[in-house]
Amino acid sequence: MTEGSTAATPTVAESMVELVKGIACSLVDSPESVTVEAFSETGDGTLIRLRVAPTDVGKVIGKQGRTARSIRTILSAASMKLKHRFSLDIVEEGPVS
Prior knowledge:
By secondary structure, this protein is α+β, with helices and mostly antiparallel strands. The protein has helices at 2-27, 57-61, 66-82; strands spanning 35-40, 45-52, 85-92. It contains 3 helices and 3 strands, in the order αββααβ. A 3-stranded mixed sheet has the order 1-2-3. Helix 1 (2-27) packs antiparallel against helix 3. It starts with a helix and ends in a 5-residue tail after the last strand. Residues 1-8 have low confidence and may be disordered.
């Protein structure tokens, strides 16, 4: 039984990663710098980490966090349908050294 659920989980996480990446790429000025990673958390949750260029952080967060809240609302709706919890972290991409 657990094998079936673990086989489906990466596909669900990958589709949510693609969703977040698509939304973020449409919001930012430099979509080539957008990276999205999924990390399994304990239990039935997945952390999605969105990295954008330092100049694009404000565009993804929005005024008073409204854009970020909207992205999280979309993830929450998908979470309810899929019965899998997703959380979103927005991270500023640091300079490559």
